[in-house]
Please model this.
Amino acid sequence: MVGPPGAGKGTQAQILASELSIPKVSTGDIFRTNVSGGTDLGKQAKTYMDRGELVPDEVTNEMVRDRLAQEDAQAGFLLDGFPRNVAQAETLNKILNDLGERLDVVLELAVDQEEVVRRLAGRRSCRSCGHVQHLEYDPPQVDGVCDNCGGELFQREDDREETIRRRLEVYDEQTAPLVAFYRNEGILQTIDATGAVEDIAARALDALRSQA
Model:
């Protein structure tokens, strides 16, 4: 799945993986599993993470290779958060070729940038329980107070408008070229990622089934 921050990739990936009975493979999950499990790759990744540095592509790529070789991924999988750039996409093709697999479809969640800003900038997180609310879509009953536990709601740095716009610039620079890459490969399906979650999921399933 590809799409800008705030497009709903994580939410839709969870729904689609459940509907299709395949594992959702995300780099975040892979990192946590390897680090908590103390694997060799996890130890390598942790040395970079502890220094506040990005984990190099070669370590991430090997983690992905190991995950896709596991038994539960043999009947299919849904990638969430990988690849993030064309170089990773080319490496993924090599990994899949080595495993005797290929990507059937790449789903692009298309959403207007101003909609992304509206979605993310309206989020407020609870300092006490971590519950997330939205000023427009799920407003708190009492301004600034978490409906879940009564804690203080605040705006995370990642959810500030200037930060969101910078993240969108980075997406355009690094990740958006994936759309052209996969369009050239003939496996890109683009859907409208605005509206109700269930409506977006229905569009996504229709797009995936049309490519099968």
